[in-house]
Specification:
heterodimer, A: mainly alpha, 5 helices, elongated, B: alpha+beta, 3 domains, 7-stranded antiparallel beta sheet, 22 helices, globular
């Protein structure tokens, strides 16, 4: 993953032996871990958020409420797993996030309609 | 476009999908791998939890023929009239082929205990009376509970941890399949005695052979607790008590007590209700009888259908008026999504099948356990060859290696320790059931200590041998401490008791095999013999140390691609520094 690469650059510089570049390399090494951390957050947090969003959005479907709730729960784990794979499959952390957001966008209005409809507690 | 390091000009070409998926597979498999191994092994054993429970309660005599369930239900309902007098609800689990005793629990009246206090008892199906003589134990139920909620932590934490581990597993399976190029041909490939290659082949074979099962068991495992893991749809959409009730009735046959009328009325014949249910579902298919407000004019009785003969856990029950005995409701189906969930749940538990099905579940599940175990071991096998000094590996390697030993070789020993405690702890011991569990964890902790102080290979071998000996001697311990030795079980045709002990021997044989193979194992493919590696340090300590440190750093990183441009370049760089 990206940590591998950053460590490579870090090591190559430290082999160069002068002190100032070594410090720079260290900072670069720390920064180099950031994309990986970003991906991990995208996978665990972002993936879960996407799955949860789907499980709410399906309630907008014209089927009985309990069935929609159960169906949403059933499908959510597949979405979660898919999201995690996506996050690590793409070329960069930025793309990973963008992909998650693009997947979430069409779900948002449906989830929104469920949330706003939920406020006046009436059974459909 | 992006700020990722990989896109910078100094970085090598973006790695292929197989490589990234391989990394994902390795790290999701490793991070919670020890939990997964424990979940898999205890879960595998749980397919025979009823049998194990019988073995752990030797006082309850073998039931050559259990009386008719309807008669048993009637008897125990009468017994509960006095035993659970004044309760708002009791629920009775009936006997079947595998479950030779009936057990019941009931809600305590509000004033007597806390808000939701329950009491439970085990009943002899022959007499309908409460069994007092059985030793206090959680039985096979413990392993079952442990496999999804662990122990020594709040139940909810345990379930979340199990869910996280299952999610990691799911990702590991998907990424593992993507990584695996020749999934079909490799299944027929096995290279014995070739070190890392053999481990890889074993891991592949175990995984691919059971792939549909592993995928199913992981996903359905998540489904069993999905309302906990994904509550958002329910929170957003189920906003009235009526909807809440509707949802619950799609998922569970457990009826909640309504308001009592306050007027006393005796409970109608439970036996007749069970017979009515049997006439619809066939005999032996009634699992549970639940009565709410028994003894009150508003009493209700639900007769719940068992899991035999239908691959589903969806609720099916008959609801009777508890006083007149009139059938009020025949709930025989649920909605499509709920039925899907019911089928997935049923598939996970595998209780629908006969003995053959159960054995198949057990064997494939054991292959799943071995899959996780071999994956964990491979992590170290792969990296050991690259260690600069195999006697002093870096800390991460050591942690994985030692945890592997304690988890894989230590757990069977610890589990057998619990079974020994079941036989040896004094009968009158306070909190005996809990102490059985404590003993298991004490043994497990000792195996970890053992793994830490002994050389790795010795630790593997010794723990395997100890586990084998402990399991092999269990039937002997049983013969000495109970009046149900193996030969008597066989003579009396008590095949449940006998089969459990024969399984101990099978597992003992398996562990013996592992011990012997580990002992005979000669690591292959070491890049250089130890003497050669040690030589430079004799000449000059410092530079070698620095070089070693660089190499350690290198091996600490995620594994280099097998084709290896980046990895090779990296290592030659490290050696250049030397």
């Amino acid at each position: 993953m990206s940590a591998t690469v950053s460590a490579v650059t870090g090591q190559a510089t430290s082999a160069g032996a002068s002190r100032a570049p070594a410090a720079v390399a260290r900072i670069r090494g720390v920064l180099g871990v950031m994309p990986l951390l970003s991906r991990i957050v995208a996978a665990i947090g972002g993936g879960y958020a996407l799955a949860a969003l789907l499980s709410v959005a399906v309630l907008a479907l014209p089927v009985s409420r309990p069935q929609a709730v159960i169906g949403g729960m059933l499908g959510s784990f597949a979405v979660y797993a898919g999201a995690v794979v996506w996050v690590f499959a793409v070329r960069s952390a930025t793309r990973a996030w963008v992909g998650l957001i693009i997947a979430a966008l069409p779900l948002l209005p449906f989830a929104w309609s469920v949330w706003t409809a939920a406020a006046p507690a009436a059974s459909p | 476009m992006t700020v990722d390091v990989q896109d910078s000009p100094t970085a090598p070409q973006a790695r292929g999908i197989r490589q990234t998926m391989s990394d994902l597979h390795i790290w999701t498999g490793l991070l919670l791998g020890w939990f997964l191994f424990a979940m898999f092994l205890t879960g595998t054993v749980s397919y025979f939890k009823e049998e194990l429970s019988q073995w752990m309660r030797p006082e309850i005599a073998h039931q050559a023929a259990t009386p008719e369930p309807a008669v048993v239900a009637g008897r125990i309902a009468k017994e509960l009239d006095t035993l659970a007098a004044g309760t708002s609800q009791w629920s009775l689990r009936l006997t079947d082929d595998r479950h030779s005793v009936a057990d019941a629990f009931w809600r305590l009246p509000a004033k007597e205990g806390a808000r939701r206090a329950f009491k439970s008892a085990v009943f002899d199906p022959q007499t309908g009376e409460k069994v007092v003589a059985a030793r206090e134990t959680l039985g096979g139920e413990f392993f079952y509970r442990f496999h999804f909620q662990f122990h020594y932590m709040p139940v909810l934490w345990g379930r979340w941890l199990a869910g996280l581990a299952a999610m990691f597993m799911l990702v590991a399976i998907v990424s593992g399949v993507i990584t695996h190029k020749k999934i079909f041909t490799d299944f027929f490939t096995f290279r014995w005695g070739k070190g890392q290659r053999s481990w890889l082949d074993a891991h592949n074979a175990l995984s691919v052979f059971g792939l549909p099962f592993h995928l199913m068991i992981t996903y359905t495992g998540l489904v069993t607790l999905m309302a906990l893991y994904m509550p958002w749809g329910e929170q957003a959409g189920i906003n009235s008590p009526a909807l809440k009730k509707e949802l619950t009735s799609e998922l569970s046959a457990f009826i909640q007590p309504g308001k009592p009328s306050g007027e006393k009325a005796p409970l109608a014949s439970v036996e007749a209700m069970v017979r009515e249910a049997e006439s619809r579902w066939g005999s032996g298919n009634v699992a549970r009888v639940t009565a709410t407000n028994p003894g009150d004019a508003a009493a209700r009785v639900a007769i719940t259908r068992g899991e035999g003969g239908r691959v589903s856990m969806s609720p099916q029950y008959l609801l009777f008026d508890g006083v007149s005995g009139k059938l009020l409701e025949d709930r025989s189906s649920v909605g499509a999504a709920a039925e899907t969930r019911g089928v997935m749940y049923g598939l996970h538990l595998g209780r629908f099948g006969d003995d053959t099905t159960r054995w198949l579940y057990f064997i494939v599940s054991l292959a799943g356990t071995a899959m996780v175990g071999s994956g964990l071991v491979m992590w170290t096998v792969k990296r050991r060859q690259k260690l600069p000094d195999p006697d002093r590996p870096y800390i991460g390697f050591m942690v994985v290696e030692r945890l592997n030993i304690a988890a894989i070789a230590g757990l069977p020993l610890a589990m057998s320790g619990m079974l020994w405690a079941n036989r040896l702890l004094p009968m009158g011991l306070d909190k005996r059931a809990e102490w059985e569990v404590h003993v298991m964890f004490i043994v497990w902790a000792v195996t970890l200590l053992h793994a830490l102080v002994r050389p790795a290979k010795r630790a593997w071998i010794e723990l395997f041998w100890l586990g084998a000996a402990s399991l092999a001697l269990l039937p002997v311990g049983n013969a000495l401490t109970t009046d149900r030795p193996l030969w008597r079980s066989v003579a009396q045709g008590d095949w449940t008791f006998a089969a459990v002990e024969l399984m101990f021997w099978t597992f003992a044989a398996l562990l013996t095999y592992l011990a012997i193979r580990t002992a005979r194992h000669v690591p292959k493919g070491k890049p250089a013999p130890k003497a050669k590696r040690a030589a430079p340090s004799g000449q000059d300590g410092t530079p070698v140390k620095a070089g070693a440190r660089a190499a350690v750093k290198a091996s600490r990183m995620p594994p280099p691609p097998p084709s290896g441009e980046a990895g090779m370049a990296l290592r030659s760089g490290g050696e250049g520094a030397r």
